[in-house]
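Aim 2 progress update. The chain analyzed this quarter is reproduced below.
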Amino acid sequence: MVEKRNDPVVVIGLGRFGSSLALELTRRGTEVLAIDHRPKIVQALAGHITHLATADATDLDALQQLGVPDFYRAVVAIGDLEASILSASLLVELEIDDIWAKAVSQQHRRILSRVGVHHVVLPEFDMGERVAHLVSGRLLDYMEVDENFALIKTHPPKEYVGTPLGESGLRRKYGVTVVAVKKEGEAFTYATAETELSYGDIILVSGRTDQIERFSELS
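Predicted C-alpha cells:
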C-alpha cells in the first residue's frame, strides 16, 4: 500500500494528547476515526472530529466492526499501561502498516516497541527535554528529529563570526552543519561555504545529539 500524507488515521484514546492530536489532524484536512470508551468524552468532541465512536479498543471484535483493519495508520493515545499495550498489540495483529503510540514511561516505551509498534513517543519526556534546552538560555529552539540527531536554532558563537563557514573548521571540530542563516530583518537562506556569520544572526544547526550538545555550550 502506498503511503499518503492524508490517509485516514485512527486515534484511540481521547485524553488531552489524543483529543489534541485528533483535532489537529482534522484541522489539517485528514480524515480521522477517533475512538474512546467514555461516552461523555466522545460526545464533547461531536462535530469537531470527522468520525467518532464509543468503543472498547482492547476488544478485537469492536475494532473490526469499526473498520480499523482498513486503515493504513493508527495512533494509540491511551494513558493506561495495560489498555495501551493490549490495544497496540491488537493493531499489530490486524496488520496496520503504520502504528504510533504514546508511552508514559521508558519501560512503557520498550514494551510497546517489543509488541511491534513502529513509532513510540513520550510527549511529556520529549517536551521536558526540549524545554530544558530552552530554559538553559543558550538555544532559541531545539528539535530532536531522530533518536540521535537534532536541529537547533541559536545565535552564532563569537569565535565563528566574520569567517566564511568553509574556512571556519566548524564541521571538522564539532561535527555539526550550519544549515541556514537568518540575517536581521531578512528571511532564512541556505548556508554555503562562503557564508559569513554576523552578531545578531540566527542560525539553524544540525548534527548528532552529542555533537549538538557540545556546540551549544559555545552559544
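The chain has a mean pLDDT of 89. The first strand starts at residue 9 and ends at 12. These observations will guide the mutagenesis experiments scheduled for the next reporting period.
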